[in-house]
Amino acid sequence: MPEISCEIEVSERDVGGTSVLVLALSGQLETTTVPNLQKEATALIEQGHKFLVLALKGVDYVSSNGLGLLLDLHRRLAKQEGRVCLSEITEEVRHIMKIVGFDRILRIYDTTDEAAAACVATD
After folding, report:
1. Has residue 1 got a pLDDT over 90?
2. Residue 116 · residue 86 · CB < 8 Å
3. If you average pLDDT over residues 37-51, what whole number do you get?
4. How many domains are there within the chain?
5. Distance (Å, rounded) from C-alpha 117 to C-alpha 45?
6. pTM to 2 decimals?
7. Mean pLDDT of 42-66
8. Where residue 67 sits, what CATH number does that domain have?
9. Do the domain assignments include residue 1?
10. Which of 30, 42, 66, 105 has a C-alpha 20 to 30 A away from that of 97?
């Protein structure tokens, strides 16, 4: 049985003078991998980062635990007048998000550039 993992690559973008962190993810967001992403995202939020883009191009599966983490990040950042946006979602993950209604809660964009710009936009 292959090992289940989720790799995280963090980069920073300047969008109109505002820092947006991009977390490029690959692998699976499920029970064994969610704690690592949660720890990483929590540390970044505690450092004062309020705008996160999760680029999910390399994620082929999201479990209920993964969905719960996405919702938790959405709520935490909204309380701090921040935002989490998703980009580059595979069709499989987009389908899961649509089934559970997350496409109406979370902001989903085709490209990371669109997501980063929308993350800091006031609307």
Report:
1. no
2. no
3. 94
4. 1
5. 19
6. 0.92
7. 94
8. 3.30.750.24
9. no
10. 42
